[in-house]
Cupin
Amino acid sequence: MTIRRANTDIVTAPDGISTGPFKVEPLLQSSVDGENTAMRAIVGPGIITHWHSHPRGQLLYVLSGKGRACAEGGEIVDLHPGDSIWFAPHERHWHGATDDMAFSYLSIQAIADGASVHWFEPVTLKEHAS
């Protein structure tokens, strides 16, 4: 059994994965294929991730605020507390906060070939505003 106390390991997400800095709290970490990772993210207004995908998919569960998400080729959807969203394995997508409100969510994804995520290019203004 492992217990992580709330707010003890909050760090800034790595540079180059979003339009601005945001905080993450690792909840479950691994680099072993087939195991899950989980985190809580706290994203400020207007901050969105770059395009990315997850080799075994990703589940987001919205905790607070208002977010937006978009799968490549799809429509942008609004996300509210209590909503969950599943991105299929290798589905390119982005997510983040609306321009006027912060956004917090839980993220769960599994490891494949030593990675839980693959990062791509930034989302263009046109893609974000659609």
About this structure: The chain has a mean pLDDT of 94. The helical segments are 125-129.
